[in-house]
Amino acid sequence: MTVATGQPRVAVVVPTYNEKENVREFKRRLEPMIESMGGRLTVLFVDDNSPDGTGAEIRGLMESTPAFGILERAGKRGLGTAYVDGFRRVLEAQDPEIVVQMDADLQHPPEILGSLVAEVASGRADVAIASRHIDEGSFRGLSLSRRVISKGASWYSRKVLGLKVKDTTTGFKALRKSAVECLVAHPPRSSGFVYQVESLYILNKNGFRLVEVPFTFEERTKGVSKMGTGEILGFFFGVLGIRFRRY
Questions:
Q1: Cα–Cα distance between 108 and 129 in angstroms, integer?
Q2: What pTM value is reported for the model?
Q3: Of the candidates 127, 159, 183, 203, which lies 20 to 30 Å from 84 by C-alpha distance?
């Protein structure tokens, strides 16, 4: 689904770390959406000084794609701060009505970006969440152990934090400007993958309407997954920490 010209201004924030092999294909698959928006969609990559040359690759793509921009940070500073820094930059520079957060590894299919934007633009939701765990949502090519971890993490965070969202760990979302401003004003303290859960918790506590849109999550074909044992343990204790913080 695409969004016609004249619809809301949309900024896409994409954290990257060692994604050189994927950003060119990411651009190819996102181009139809960029063209359909008629200059109303921009993409900001937030790169943490990737040693594989991701930043240089993005700068090269920027020469032929005016919609692309880059925020380069010194050193690997974490997923959570990458989103918040990216949100702050697009709010200051572009005044978008809707902000999309997604990965560049193509596990978040660029083709459904329009469906998420349309859900928020319609007024039905403040945050549209691409979900693997609702009807018609699924995984493709992912091992059984990774599926169990994903579903278990969402179940655990729902139980501990009282969230109603079935897929609490997805990083593919469209947010109304006011929801993004909330996260910038009250930034999550988590820097890793648990950021996804903490940001939903903050938005839920502040009364934003959250809806889930089904999508198929695919295993990456290039690059290396950032999910490891340390991230899994950090997630477990991070969710507990959120439960006992004062917001």
A1: 11
A2: 0.89
A3: 159
